[in-house]
Design a protein that fits this description.
The protein is an all-alpha fold. It has 13 helices and two strands. The chain has a domain of 177 residues: Orthogonal Bundle (MetI-like fold), CATH 1.10.3720. It has a two-stranded antiparallel ribbon with strand order 1-2.
């Protein structure tokens, strides 16, 4: 039976591990404005990127945006996930499809739609001005708030469906038993539903966090050129600067930060859940 997983393992190694090893080797080279890339075996790029305040700020901004978006997404998604998980109707499949439907639209197309809403003469400012709720157009575009809003809209379906799948597996009899024992609705949620749905919360949060850390189109289109996150910074090094060693270095730094927080969160949740 173990032989059945060999083709999948070989495919993962060939398409994922192999390119990552090659990328790591490129990150150890040196950059030259005239020769572009000089073969070397040095960790100078990592030291330079870690010590540069510019890249430190980009990493902290990316991490902060990812954590904020994950928290906001969880708060918004949990009630919807509970409703979907407890829904008993012949229309439930249509509700799930409707939840998945935004994923059929690319991030660039969705970001372009948000741009039409957030611009100074966009839909939101036009409505607010005509209702005389504001005296002048609000600055919505090219702000961190627009980026957070756009990212949350992208990752929300992942969080809803992940948590809903776990809530659906929780027997409804446990809620009835808690109610019969005198527990209020809030206490039932806090002592029964939330602990049992914790695996879904953890899985959804980790998935959303990884997606937020690696966002590109939303950060570029809604944040503008002055708002820097790691994925656009990596793109700039590869495409605009032709500095492949530094681009590969930033890519591995992004991978390291994302993996560290993911592993730490998984371990912390596992210990908490065991208790």
């Amino acid at each position: 039976m173990a032989l059945l997983v060999v083709p999948a393992c070989l495919l993962v190694i060939g398409l994922l591990v192999g390119p990552m090893i090659l990328m790591f080797r490129i990150s150890l080279n040196r950059f030259s404005p005239t020769e572009l890339m000089i073969q070397a075996f040095s960790f100078d790029n990592y030291a330079r990127a870690a010590a540069d305040p510019y890249y430190q700020e980009i990493i902290l901004t990316t991490l902060g945006i990812a954590l904020l978006c994950t928290a906001v997404t969880l708060i918004i998604a949990y009630p919807a996930a509970y409703w979907v998980g407890r829904l008993q109707s012949r229309w439930k499949s249509l509700v799930v499809i409707a939840t998945l439907f935004p994923l059929l639209v690319g991030n660039v197309v969705r970001s372009a739609g948000w741009m039409a809403l957030f611009e100074r003469d966009g839909f939101i400012n036009t409505v607010l001005m005509r209702l005389h709720l504001v005296g002048r157009p609000l600055e919505l575009m090219y702000t961190p708030k627009a980026v957070v809003f756009g990212i949350v809209a992208v990752v929300l379906p992942y969080m809803i469906l992940t948590i809903a799948a776990v809530i659906e597996s929780i027997p409804r009899d446990l809620e009835y038993a808690a109610a019969n024992l005198g527990a209020s609705g809030l206490k039932t949620f806090w002592r029964v539903i939330l602990p049992l749905s914790a695996p879904g919360v953890a899985a959804g949060s980790i998935l959303v966090f990884v997606l937020c850390m690696n966002t590109y189109a939303t950060a570029v289109l809604l944040g503008g050129p002055r708002f820097k996150m790691m994925a656009p910074a990596i793109f700039d090094q590869f495409i605009r600067g032709n500095n492949w060693p530094m681009g590969a270095t930033l890519a591995f730094m992004l991978l390291a930060v994302t993996l560290s927080f993911t592993v730490f969160g998984s371990i912390a949740f596992a210990r908490r859940y065991r208790r």
